[in-house]
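INFO batch 0412 | record 1 of 1 | parsing
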Amino acid sequence: MNELLKKIVSSFVMATAVMNLAACALGGGKNEENVLRMLEEKYNQKFGIAEYYGYDRSAGSVGVLAYSREQPDILFEAEAARDGSYLNDEYVAACVFRKIERKMEENIKNMPGDFVLKARTGSKAMDSADFNMSIEAFQELKEGSRYAVYLFYAPKEQESAETYEALKDIARGLPELSGNVQLYIVEEKLLKKVQGYWKEHTNFDYELEELLGDVENVEIPFEKEHLSVTREKFEYKAYENSELYRHTDRDSENK
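INFO prediction complete | emitting tokens
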């Protein structure tokens, strides 16, 4: 009798779990539609959902990772009330970040090697619907904001002088920006994994930390258009923090 009861209870639990999963899936679909509708009304664009974060019952809100169908490579986070009473999203900031990244990528295009660059700042949610906002206008609204520029770099050869000269110009033409370049010197294989990570994420989090493993960053402050570090200090930091740099340097000396 006890065995029969266990089977009945087990079957009931499994059936309940399946029903709950189905309900969550349906709820996710409706919630996603609600967020998309609110984004489209705000920006007059079509959007898609890259990832559904879920429904926060206590806050009555839904979180998603979204993208504009006009710019599918720009991911941003959004949170919307299920009753449609509010929408918090980072689309404007994400568009501005991309402008900053493109300018910086152009500035350091002659750096010997391959790289992935991401620019981020603290406060990202905005009420503005101006997704074409200029960097200058964004800075005025976010007065005092400092940037973290994550630069993942796979040098082809140990050319610290050329690397520094390229980095020295990273903020050229961006006179309003200040912050730090977080430089990670990595191998090409790891750089590709990092590139894949940023295609699915918007922030530096524990997953990327695990991916980088024991790779230490070199922090390089910049104030407006100028790096706040000399070439000698940069070389010292790079050599101290990068096994790859030291190995490449020894290899070049042995040739």
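INFO post-check: Residues 4-27, 248-255 have pLDDT under 50 and may be disordered.
INFO record closed
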